[in-house]
């Protein structure tokens, strides 16, 4: 496990950003080449929303993975968070510019349609988190930064609710997402006491 | 063959038909899955020969009508209709088919009948979507008898002069061009004449969003989205939205059916 964690740490952030950028670029290419089917706008809108949600769910999984599986992906968390946010922002822009198109209707939807409202609130929560995802903000905000970034949980939860609210009829998939999100949040709330005690005996051991 | 190219029931039109590959690759046919490309992927599993339609209820000649027998007695026409999905996208489809009224006349509708109920094939071993509870199966739809007898109401058996592709509802499906697409029930195995308003699948699933009538109406929004405009499918990445027309552009022909009705109440 330590070896795995060493490899993880060796992967630099810029590589994650590069992979993260490649996906929307590929989507754009696929939209024009016909790979996204006959309705490329909706396909792109849904792909960005869903992949954005997946990346943000992965972000939520990072601390439970470290705590319960001893896999340490902490060094990826910032890049994944920023990439997830970027996908959600692009999801919103595709919806606004290519799907709804008409600004008055965009606004009417934002104030009137519950699933759009939930999605927008989620995006509005993510925005300050993305803006404060730099070292300067971490230093400047100190303890408040940690508190602020706990809002990720709320934003991802709303993202899952938004997904359920927009599908027609009953479908499993969005409920699976919501269950995973709620599960990850619940894992965080598990008492840490037991774990601390279990660790104690290892402390005196000489390095 | 096509008996007539400019049929009586059709409004004068300069509509540009959507390409066949778009019509056959972008379908809502939940019997094969909820994704738009699922029907094109899985509908080949469907057996459509032999096929019979049971016509029963308030008719003089109830029974199983073999598809081939029906076809031999009907005049097939081409009808180029706008097709407007409740999800706010649209196509223009050159259907081939016959008027539903002609089929109903064959069965002899009794004077006590007021509604027509339709049922899609239920065969989960060939229709993988039916193994999941997306909707209550089989899919059912219904029309008021005057809607069913309207000359625009078509039993479609083909597109672009070829037999109906399976993903579009082979071998025969309803087409009611002034209503949202889900009213145009596919792969029909039963038609029942009744004196009561029949249950309809989407109405049973989400009654607040889908009514019995489901007439295309740009002034009555779906609770989750506007119905004022629609995205034509097949126009590519920068396709412009177009305004949705009252009764999908067939107002002149059908508005009379709903005179005096509050279309907000009967959505």
3D structure, described in words:
The complex is a heterodimer of chains A (about 210) and B (about 270). By secondary structure, chain A is an all-alpha fold. Chain A has one domain. Helices cover about 80% and strands about 0% of the residues of chain A. In chain A, α3 packs across α9, α3 packs parallel to α10 and α9 runs antiparallel to α10. Chain B is α+β, with helices and mostly antiparallel strands and about 270 residues long. Chain B has one domain: Alpha-Beta Complex (Sulfite Oxidase, Chain A, domain 2). Chain B is built from seven helices and twelve strands. In chain B, the strands form two sheets. In chain B, strands 3, 4, 7, 8, 9, 11 and 12 form a seven-stranded mixed β-sheet that branches. In chain B, β7 and β8 form a beta hairpin. The longest helix of chain B is centred in the middle third of the chain and has 8 residues. The interface between A and B is medium-sized, with 27 and 31 residues.
Topology:
The complex is a heterodimer of chains A (207) and B (267).
Chain A: H1 2-10, H2 13-33, H3 40-69, H4 77-100, H5 103-112, H6 114-131, H7 135-141, H8 143-149, H9 151-166, H10 172-189, H11 193-199
Chain B: H1 20-25, H2 38-42, E1 52-57, E2 63-66, H3 67-73, E3 77-84, E4 89-99, H4 100-107, E5 115-120, E6 140-144, H5 145-148, E7 154-159, E8 162-163, E9 173-175, E10 188-194, H6 201-205, E11 229-232, E12 242-243, H7 251-254
Parallel strand pairs in B: 1-10, 4-11
Antiparallel strand pairs in B: 1-2, 3-4, 4-7, 5-6, 5-10, 7-8, 7-9, 11-12
Organism (chain A): Shimia marina
Protein name (chain A): Protein-methionine-sulfoxide reductase heme-binding subunit MsrQ
Membrane topology (chain A): Multi-pass membrane protein
Biggest beta sheet attributes of chain A: none
Structural class of the secondary structure composition of chain A? mainly alpha
What proportion strand of chain A? under 5%
Fraction in beta strands of chain B: 15-25%
CATH architecture of chain B: Alpha-Beta Complex
Number of H- or I-type helical stretches of chain B: 7
Strand runs of chain B, count = 12
Q: Which outline of chain B best applies?
A: globular
């Amino acid at each position: 496990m330590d070896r795995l964690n060493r490899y993880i740490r060796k992967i630099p952030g810029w590589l994650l950003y590069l992979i993260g950028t490649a996906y929307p670029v590929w989507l754009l290419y696929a939209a024009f080449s016909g790979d996204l089917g006959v309705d490329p706008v909706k396909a792109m809108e849904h792909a960005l929303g869903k992949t954005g949600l997946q990346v943000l769910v992965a972000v939520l999984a990072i601390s439970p993975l470290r705590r319960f599986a001893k896999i340490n992906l902490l060094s990826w968390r910032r890049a994944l968070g920023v990439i997830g946010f970027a996908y959600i922002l692009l999801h919103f822009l595709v919806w606004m510019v290519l799907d709804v198109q008409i600004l008055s209707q965009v606004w009417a939807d934002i104030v009137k349609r519950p699933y759009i409202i939930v999605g927008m609130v989620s995006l509005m929560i993510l925005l300050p988190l993305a803006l404060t995802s730099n070292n300067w903000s971490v230093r400047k905000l100190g303890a408040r930064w940690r508190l602020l970034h706990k809002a990720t949980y709320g934003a991802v939860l709303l993202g899952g609710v938004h997904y359920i609210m927009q599908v027609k009829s009953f479908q499993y998939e969005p409920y699976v997402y919501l269950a995973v999100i709620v599960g990850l949040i619940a894992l965080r709330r598990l008492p840490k006491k037991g774990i601390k005690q279990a660790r104690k005996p290892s402390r005196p051991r000489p390095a | 063959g096509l008996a007539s190219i400019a049929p009586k029931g059709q409004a004068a039109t300069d509509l540009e038909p959507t390409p066949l590959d778009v019509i056959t690759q972008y379908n809502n046919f939940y019997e094969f899955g909820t994704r738009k490309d699922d029907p094109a992927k899985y509908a080949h599993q469907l057996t459509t020969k032999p096929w019979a339609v049971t016509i029963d209820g308030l008719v003089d000649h109830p029974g199983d009508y073999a598809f081939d027998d029906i076809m031999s007695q009907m005049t097939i026409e081409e009808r180029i209709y706008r097709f407007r999905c409740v999800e706010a996208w649209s196509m223009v489809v050159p259907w081939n088919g016959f008027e539903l009224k002609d089929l109903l006349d064959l069965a002899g509708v009794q004077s006590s009948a007021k509604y027509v109920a339709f049922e899609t094939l239920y065969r989960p071993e060939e229709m993988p979507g039916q193994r999941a509870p997306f909707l209550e199966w089989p899919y059912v739809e219904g029309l008021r008898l005057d809607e069913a007898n309207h000359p625009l109401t078509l039993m479609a058996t083909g597109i672009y002069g070829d037999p109906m592709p399976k993903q579009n509802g082979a071998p025969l499906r309803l087409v009611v061009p002034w209503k949202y697409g889900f009213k145009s029930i596919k792969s029909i195995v039963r038609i029942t004449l009744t004196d009561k308003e029949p249950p309809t699948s989407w109405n049973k699933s989400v009654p607040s969003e889908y009514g019995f009538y489901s007439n295309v109406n740009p002034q009555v929004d779906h609770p989750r989205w506007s119905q004022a405009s629609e995205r034509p499918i097949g126009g590519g990445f920068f396709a412009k939205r177009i305004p949705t027309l009252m009764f999908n552009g067939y107002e002149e022909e059908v508005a009379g059916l709903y005179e005096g009705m509050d279309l907000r109440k009967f959505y």
